[in-house]
Every structure is written in structure tokens, then in C-alpha cells.
Specification:
Layout (H helix, E strand, L loop, with lengths): L2 H16 L18 H36 L2 H65 L3 H7 L4 H72 L3 H29 L21 E4 L18 E4 L5 E3 L4 E8 L5 E9 L5 E9 L1 E2 L8 E2 L4 E4 L10 E8 L2 E3 L10
Antiparallel strand pairs: 1-2, 2-10, 3-9, 4-5, 4-8, 5-6, 6-10, 7-9, 10-11
Amino acid sequence: MSKQKIFNTVMIILIILSFTTSIFAEENQTANGTTNEAENNSVRALTLQEQRNQVQEQLTTASDQLTYVQGELSSKMINIQNLQDKISNYQKQLDEVNSKYDELQQQVKESEKSLSAIQSKYIKKDRLLKERLVEIYKRGTNNYLDVLLGSKDIIEFISNYFMIESITKYDMQSLDQLNEQKQKIEKLANELNEKKVKMKLTKNNAETQSVILANTKTILENEKASLDDSEQHLLSQIDSYKKQQDEINNLISASISSSTYELFYSGGEMVWPTYTSAYITSPFGSRLHPIQGIVKNHAGIDIGASMGSPVYAATDGVIIYYSWMGGYGNTVMIDHGTNDEGIKIVTLYGHGSAFIPELGVGSQVTKGQEIMKVGSTGNSTGPHVHFEVRENGVAVDPKKYLSSSH
């Protein structure tokens, strides 16, 4: 691939990513409307229709450009992205297998320790009981009878009788306890053997995954070595993007897991996170480029809006992140609490131009409250709001929670 073609490719990528740039001018009105709202409704409806037409035209243009880019990109580049995805999946599987192996190993250690303690008690009690039985045997079967007959009076006879009964009862209880411990030892031994078998299988699985991972990495390195300088440069840009996305995901996960607010999410529709006249320019899960990883599994929706427009809290909650977040630029995250199914609901708002001075981490916000200004910070080609909804940290389609009117 020539340098000119690579340059064209990069430029087209930027065009495709930018086709979703906000082109929407917002009407000068408040969220509650104005006295002239009825008179402006027809104008606003016409504006929205025009916006929809423009977005459709841009989608058609982007589709044509995307087809061209697919033809320009080398099969090696696409194959490398596929191999990197496979390596990522293999690594994840290997980590899970190793984690399971460590867990089983710990369980085996605890089981061995428990089994050893029970066996030690069993051996001690068994020895004492056998010694008593041997002693009784040596003295003969009339030993207890001699004790009773040797009583001086009726009171001593009764006392000796109850003493003999207690000893006999104790011996029977000891036999029962020994039998229970023996059964428990057998059960623990069987469980221990099963865990050892599972541990062996898990270890074999981990070794297999390691071989697959190593082989795939070797294939990847060979593919990389065959790229020319222009392709190497483009690959480094893609790798940089992926690394940044991983850092963002880790930061989001850390913010969610560190939130300790006792909140309850009562459900209900969330409000549109900016002016209702705004329009979705990039849907959830979209992929705008054939190279996997550049725009992959879009975690939210992009909503076009004019610079400086308000960004609203989708529903009541507490701010858990209020700062810069890599490619997301100025970002706000709100913890809305846990619903009745035990799922924590968190929303994220990205690319803001400015924060609200009186707000910060720990601030309580209400549904529809302004939390930020629309902007184009971070990896953005124009003013818009990147909006996410996460359930227990996993991104889901925000349309599940937003009003169906959009």
C-alpha cells in the first residue's frame, strides 16, 4: 500500500468518524418551554425534519466512503486486527482458567488441612477406646458385676450402678462419634480427590490455552513484520487507540466499584440528557470502520447538540466521577443506585466543554438537573454528548431507559 493511499485512508477514517458531528442549532428556549412555545412548534418541527434529512444524507455518503476504505485497506491490516482480538479473547480465557485453578488449589489446601485435623482426632479417640476395651477384656466380663456386688450398702450399689451406666453410655457415644468422624473423613477424602481431578483438568486446560495464545502471538508478529512503513505507522495509531480505550474502561470500572453510596434505583424513564430537539448521531453498538478496534462496540449513544448546551442528569443520583477521562474528555458519571434485582445503574456523559462550578464528586443531583455543558473535548470531531448507561459496570443500550420518543 502506497503512502498516498494510507494518507487517503486516514483522512477517510476521520471523515467517517466526523459525519456524526453535531449540525443541529438549538432553539433559544428552556426545558419547560416559553410563552411563545406554541407559536414556535411548527418552526421547530421543520428544523428537526431538516436535521433528520441531513443526517440521512450523511449516512448514505459515509456508507459509500466506507466501501471505498474497505477496498483501500490491505488484508494484512484487517487480519492483524482479527488476530489481536483473538489474542485478547485467549488471554481473557487463560486468566479465567488460571483464576479457577488458584481457587481450586486453595480449596484443596483447606480440605487437606481440615481432613488432617479430623483424622488426628479420630486416631486419638480410636486409640483411647481400644485401650479401654482391652483393659475391660483383661479384667474379664465380670468386672462390672464384681463392682456392684462389692458395694457395702444400697446407696453405694446405686451409685456404682449409675457410674457403670455412665461409663457404658460414654463408650457408646464414643463409638458413635468415631463412626461419624469416619464417615466425615471418607466424605472429605472423596471431595478432596474430586477437587484434585478438577485441578488437574484445569491445569491442562490452562496449558492448552497458553500454547494457543503463544502460537497466535507468533502468527501476529510474523504478520506485523511483513507490513511496510506506512502500514506500520497506521497500526501504531490503531494500537494507541485501543490502549486508550482499555484505560478508559478500567477507569470507568474503578469508579463504579469504588462507589459506596447506599442508593436505590426506583426505575422509570430517564430524561433526555440534553435538549429534546437534539438527535442521535451515532447509535449504541455501531461500528463505522472495517478495522476492528477503531470504533468497536460503541458503549453508548452520541447526541448532537450545539456548543454550550446544557447536559442534564438522566435521573436522581450521586456524582462519582467529575473530571477529564482520556478520549471521553470532560466526563461526568452518576451512580443512581441499585434496583430491586440487585443491579447497580450508572450513567456517563462525555465530551463536555465545561463543568458546573458548584458540583463535584459526592454531589447529589436530581433528574433533569444541569451537570455539564455540551462540548467537543477528548476524541471528538464536533460538539455532542456521549451518553452511556451501565448495569453493574456493563454498557447497555441507553434506549432501554430513555423516553421512546427519541
